[in-house]
Fold:
Amino acid sequence: MPPSIIRPARADEFDEIARAWMESWVSTGLSQASDKLLADLRARLPREIENGWTLFVADDRGTIAGMLALHLSKSYLDQLMVVPAYQGQSLGRQLLTFTRQHLPDEIRLRCVRENEKAWRWYEREGFVFEKEELNPLTGFMMKCYRWTKG
Structure:
């Protein structure tokens, strides 16, 4: 697969980004697709941007292939998702490389404990487990990770 272009997301893409986000989240087996989930994700995008997200998309010739949400001031990777049709093609690694360019010294993130595929991938990518904590909004137990340069 040729590399996707990673670029800032546009507000006119929020519907497509929310659909891609839902497809990726549902692929974990932790939720089922629904109109309510789609509406919640769609509503969350502008709210999170207002609260500090810098939102990027992986654009494959006009198709949203992935999403990346960073809190740059907090050195925090909030969301990294790849649409299932693009998984296993190194797009996640491309998004993580992009993240390391923007957060070169330290990256913190949380991952749902039951999403073993994701947290094992972060561990292979050099992230170190620090603790678990409950997400009071979702009820999911979260694994907290940190990566530092060097």
Summary: The helical segments are 14-26, 35-50, 91-102, 116-124. Residues 17 and 64 are 7 Å apart (CA to CA). The longest helix spans residues 35-50.
